[in-house]
Specification:
heterodimer, A: mainly alpha, 5 helices, B: mainly alpha, about 0% strand
Chain lengths: ~120, ~425
């Protein structure tokens, strides 16, 4: 079950910090349960530190997704935040499109609907 | 007589040695495991080591923040806070220096004045002094028996008699830990001797050990007191004692000298002796440490080969955990896919609706064009209508670029027209 967290309205810095905290928690937990080797944990930390200062959320989640394909801990964190983020983004975009249609900006709505690839 | 080891001179190494076990754990942080778990040694070293690193990262994160925790983890510099190796080395060096420098005096003290560590004020009379010396002889014998494997029973029995002859008055003057018969003084040692002394299967299969065991058995039989546990213990002591003696005779190899486990054992022996106020003898200390070291090495070696089943179980457990994880992830993936499918459907609906709206707009424009009397304006409306139709058609066929361009142009024209 997905926890009730908000992502879209959050400041990118704050969001990254929360994800960083969760990731460290998972690393420590998995190290204790022998699910990750010291070397892998070190590599994960190094790779995460490279993506820790993103320009925007889209880029950050894209990088986190790449990381999650390699490390279980990153996957757990990604699966916690990404669905919420994309769902919120989808709802937001639909609202904008609806507003465009309502105000008669059909083309803008069309463009937005076509350009916006919600799941990146 | 050099009594420096009795007081301050030894307090420093003792303190250092007390912290040794923890520091040695930390000093083993160099171990890492890779996927596959091919190396058994690594597997066996993992739990403690990883737990330590995890604890360290956690404490850094709690103290200096999450990013600092990540930085520490990424740097791979673990165990910095511990001065483990330093402590162990320092302890070893101090112990070594101490044993080397004062070896002569200590040996003299131990072998010539055996009551050096006994509380002299309690031995008031010459007779009591004698008895005190006798007690020390018992200690010496027990120590020798412990470290060299020699049987001290005969001498001990003699001294026991002397101890029992200690006058009651003298007994009353002794402090609690020394009061009572000499038997009481020896008992803790005997109790210690009765503790199980594990011998690995390899050692028990060794002909040398078997020979020693047979000798011990014969001795016990002659005495009429056959206690297998005691025999096992004495045989093991003798076996490892012989091995240690041989190694010392041939010269302690650097490999052992620099082994942290040996340093740990040396520290344990030294601190144990200091705590119990036992005499420190260079050879005996090293011998005992060596025996303990060898014993633990043998046990560890056996453990490495033995717990194959345990490791298999661990791997099975881990695999099971992974399976559960994978199934949970699959479930999550399915949920995400379902969400994606729904969103796509919604988008398609929206697109369809928008196209319908565009068609309605086109009809409206056409009506406007039909009603327009000014020919020039009528032409303008017709042009817009064409564009709109083109946009609708291209959008219906999914020609994105054209749609985008035409949509922008249409929008501009609509704005101009309005």
């Amino acid at each position: 079950m997905i926890q009730k967290i908000t992502v879209l309205n959050k400041d990118t810095k704050q969001l990254v910090r929360e994800i960083e905290r969760d990731l460290l928690f998972h690393i420590i937990l998995n190290m204790r349960h022998l699910r990750i080797s010291q070397k892998s944990a070190q590599n994960l930390a190094q790779e995460f530190l490279k993506i820790v200062k993103p320009e925007n959320k889209v880029e950050f989640f894209k990088n986190l997704k790449n990381l999650s394909q390699k490390y279980l801990e990153a996957q757990e964190v990604y699966l916690k935040y990404a669905p919420v983020y994309y769902e919120e983004r989808k709802q937001y975009m639909l609202r904008v499109i609806y507003d465009y249609v309502k105000t008669g900006n059909i083309n803008k709505a069309l463009i937005l609907a076509k350009e916006e690839n919600i799941y990146g | 007589m050099d009594k420096s080891f009795e007081t301050g001179a030894l307090s420093a190494p003792q303190t250092a040695l007390q912290s040794e076990p923890a520091t040695l754990e930390a000093s083993s942080e160099g171990f890492t495991i890779e996927a596959g778990f091919s190396d058994r040694e690594m597997i066996s070293s993992v739990p403690q080591n990883h737990s330590l690193v995890a604890d360290e990262i956690l404490s850094v994160a709690q103290k200096d923040g999450i990013e600092a925790g990540f930085q520490r983890l990424a740097s791979g510099e673990f165990g910095q806070k511990h001065t483990a190796q330093g402590d162990a080395n320092a302890a070893f060096d101090v112990g070594k220096a101490m044993t080397q420098e004062s070896a002569h005096q200590v040996e003299k003290a131990v072998y010539e004045e055996m009551n050096v560590l006994q509380p002299k004020p309690f031995f008031k009379s010459a007779e009591a002094k004698k008895t005190g010396s006798a007690r020390s002889v018992v200690q010496k014998d027990v120590l020798e028996a412990t470290y060299t494997g020699k049987n001290a029973d005969t001498k001990t029995a003699q001294v026991k008699d002397q101890g029992n002859s200690l006058p009651n008055e003298e007994q009353k003057t002794l402090p609690e830990n020394l009061a009572g018969s000499d038997k009481d003084n020896i008992d803790p040692k005997t109790q210690e001797a009765k503790k199980p002394f594990p011998v690995s299967e390899n050692v028990s299969a060794d002909p040398e050990y078997k020979k020693i065991w047979a000798e011990e058995y014969n001795k016990a039989r002659q005495k009429g007191d056959i206690n297998t546990e005691d025999i096992n213990h004495r045989a093991a002591k003798e076996y490892y004692g012989k091995w240690a003696k041989k190694v010392i005779r041939e010269g302690l190899p650097d490999e052992i000298k620099n082994d942290p486990l040996f340093k740990q054992k040396l520290g344990e022996v030294l601190s144990e002796r200091l705590e119990n106020e036992k005499p420190i003898n260079n050879n005996l200390v090293v011998q005992e440490a060596l025996a303990k070291y060898k014993q633990e090495k043998d046990t560890a070696a056996e453990k490495l080969s033995e717990p194959k089943k345990e490791k298999e179980e661990l791997i099975d457990k881990r695999l099971k955990g992974l399976d559960e994880k994978v199934s949970s992830l699959n479930k999550n993936g399915q949920q995400t896919e379902e969400e994606l499918r729904r969103t796509k459907e919604e988008l398609e609906k929206t697109q369809k609706m928008l196209l319908e709206l565009a068609l309605i707009t086109a009809n409206m424009v056409q009506n406007k064009a039909d009603k327009e009397e000014d020919e020039q304006k009528k032409q303008g409306w017709i042009a817009i209508l064409f564009k709109l139709t083109a946009m609708i058609i291209s959008a219906s066929f999914g020609v994105e670029k054209e749609t985008k361009e035409s949509a922008r142009k249409t929008e501009q024209r609509l704005e101009i027209a309005s």
